[in-house]
Amino acid sequence: MRPLIHIVDDDESLRDSLIDLLRAAGFDAMGYGSTGEFLLHPLPERPGCLLLDVRLPGPSGLELQAALCSRGLALPIVFLTGYADVPTTVRAVKAGAVDVLEKPVDRDRLLQAIGAALAGDAQARATRQAQADRDARLTSLTAREREVFDRIVAGERNQAIADALGVSLRTIKAYRAQLMAKLGVATAAELGRLAGESEDRGR
């Protein structure tokens, strides 16, 4: 699927020229004249990034960046500005912007920044997918399997778990084999790593 580059800038001629440039470079592109217009369009679930003017009518580009962060929308942002200054650049980058480019934008510098943004987007998507897969596997455990899982990762031995739950050692070994198969892990170390990743996400 071709990446979709969103362009938010109130300069219609600039938007059109950027759309032409990006499409010629192999991307899909959409233009918006304001932050409000952009927010009215639901973001499709596909790779992409946002080219965002700093100064816009209504809410600014920096305010849109903050709004996207507060909504948990992790769309990489490359800022465009005709009024570059250090405080604005620092604020944008601290809030997660990939780059801040001064207008008129150099084509090669722009494509380089977009490449970096798309690489970050791909990594973030892969991380989210891995988290979703891990959560789905944990959710697939029965209540008893989850109890055994929690005790294993807490460092309890099979016999201690069997005694605590009032079942045989053979039963605990069977539960352990079942839950490890469901979770797609082969060793206790992999089981502990999965549990640790799950805890880190919940913090």
Index terms:
9 helices; Rossmann fold; 203 residues; alpha/beta; five-stranded parallel beta sheet; Arc Repressor Mutant, subunit A
Question: Could you describe the 3D structure shown?
Answer:
The chain has helices spanning 12-24, 35-39, 61-70, 86-94, 107-139, 143-153, 158-165, 169-183, 188-202, and strands at 4-8, 28-32, 48-53, 77-81, 99-102. It has 203 residues and is of the alpha/beta class. The chain has a 5-stranded parallel beta sheet, sandwiched between helices. The longest helix has 33 residues, at 107-139. The model has no long low-confidence stretch (mean pLDDT 89).
Which residue ranges are poorly predicted, with pLDDT under 50 across at least 5 consecutive positions? none
Structural class, from secondary structure content?
alpha/beta
Corresponding CATH superfamily of the largest domain = Response regulator
Assigned CATH architecture of the largest domain: 3-Layer(aba) Sandwich
Q: What is the typical, i.e. mean, pLDDT? A: 89
Task: List the helices and strands in order.
Answer: EHEHEHEHEHHHHH
CATH-defined fold name of the largest domain = Rossmann fold
List the helices and strands and how they pair.
Blueprint: E1 4-8, H1 12-24, E2 28-32, H2 35-39, E3 48-53, H3 61-70, E4 77-81, H4 86-94, E5 99-102, H5 107-139, H6 143-153, H7 158-165, H8 169-183, H9 188-202
Parallel strand pairs: 1-2, 1-3, 3-4, 4-5
Helix pairs in contact: 6-8, 6-9, 7-8
